[in-house]
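Um, can you check?
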Amino acid sequence: HLARGVLQTTALLCLFVGISLTPLATVAAIGFLTPIVSGAGAILFLGEPPQFKRWFAVLFGFAGVLIIIRPGLISLTLGALLVLAYAVQQAASNLTAKTLLTRGESTASVVAWMTLISAGLTLFPALFVWSWPSLYVWGLVALTALLSTIAHVATTLAYKRADITVVDPMIFFRMVIAAVFGFVLYSEVPDLWTWAGSVVILIAGMILSRVEQARAAPPV
């Protein structure tokens, strides 16, 4: 529980700073790396079979991330690096949650411990930059807390009922939603490289999902 709290805290700190520096659609696209890393971690640490298609999907998904950030062709921004760090740490947190669930922890316990630990860990750095929010900002904070809790509970329940390689590829729906909100709220238009890399990562996630479904299907 403590390890997951630390992972989730540092992941969210990286994400929030990354969002302030990077367009939403790019954040969502790079975040697609999470199910790819989760798939690799499930093979290495959770005992899922190391099939060729699984490793191909992992490497193919990583290629999609390289298309988006294009290291060497464009300057690699701090925002992109922070979102990459978030994706990797989020995948590690997801694997930890799956491990806890397989050891008999309840969904409520997994959610509650992560929330309590991450709240305590973020309080210390927050004290150095604290300023009292306005009533409007408190409303936004409350809305964020509510939506995050619902998402966390839903994700944990999903992990309890299915393998990570089936659940995590659902993250790909974020790309469309993030692109729409980024355009409507902030006039952000994703470039062609972001869409191209997203398609590559989407294909990788679909391969992982299909491999897992085929493995889980009962023999005919």
